[in-house]
């Protein structure tokens, strides 16, 4: 067990009035134990009590090794997976991870009607929001690799390019840099397809004048990189130029206000107001960003409705966009690390308007 991280979780449990929690998120279990397990249909549950007792209930198939400070309780495929966990619970309130499948929770409550479940993700989620030195180093390294990959991807934008083929090329580049396996895929969007912020690459062939949105992201040694750059092929229209410069200005305006104590909603507002003032407000259709770390999308939420406040150690995206249906899309995204007196932008690929040939 990582004792420093566990101590943060225990403090958060005390803050939330929780005496016991069950953690099932693969990333959260890894954060505390160093075990990376993708359980699929099987059960993985880390049980933590306020007194610091930690037990990991896991299928023997996962082949986990014992470690100091963590009791390992194994079951077989032929066992009722929740039986040992049910017996270990204290009566009363149980904080339950938002990621735990209902089939396990329902079985648990059937065996223990004296237990009342409540949403209990916050103690770990809030601890994970503040990256420690090792995590910051991992995220810097991942973003450095992302800078290299996006430049190689831009260099591959040429006549005859196909969205799905360019996306596969990006995946291959990541593999060359030692990226982990990910089922997310890459977002490569040509021309009008870029007006869909989450367009899935298909057989679309690049045309002269197209915007090219490259939203590329993958975990590298468990920690995610995530960046978007937009370029134009061979030419850019006056409208495309206006949209691009507006999005770039919004990205820079938001990053300029990031410092400890600034509400996330104010960071969102810094970008959104600039886009609204340019007349494109209805075409910025999503929040400004999301936290990033062991999960690509994790707290804190960087949006107009977020209650969070920027604090040192937080890492989140700043990704304003303008999406004009039937025409084009432009998004520019960086990951930023909140420092003691401002922020560090983790991505360094150019944000100047680029027309490639």
From TrEMBL:
Family matches, as InterPro entries: Creatin/AminoP/Spt16_N, Creatinase/aminopeptidase-like, Creatinase_N, Pept_M24, Peptidase_M24B
Residue ranges occupied by any Creatinase N-terminal domain in the UniProt entry: 5-128
Domain Peptidase M24: from-to ranges: 138-340
Gene3D superfamilies named among the record's database cross-references: Creatinase/methionine aminopeptidase superfamily, Creatinase/prolidase N-terminal domain
Domain of life: Bacteria
Pfam families: Creatinase_N, Peptidase_M24
PANTHER family reported in the protein's UniProt record: AMINOPEPTIDASE (PTHR46112), AMINOPEPTIDASE YPDF (PTHR46112:SF3)
Protein name: Peptidase M24 domain-containing protein
UniProt organism field: Flavonifractor plautii 1_3_50AFAA
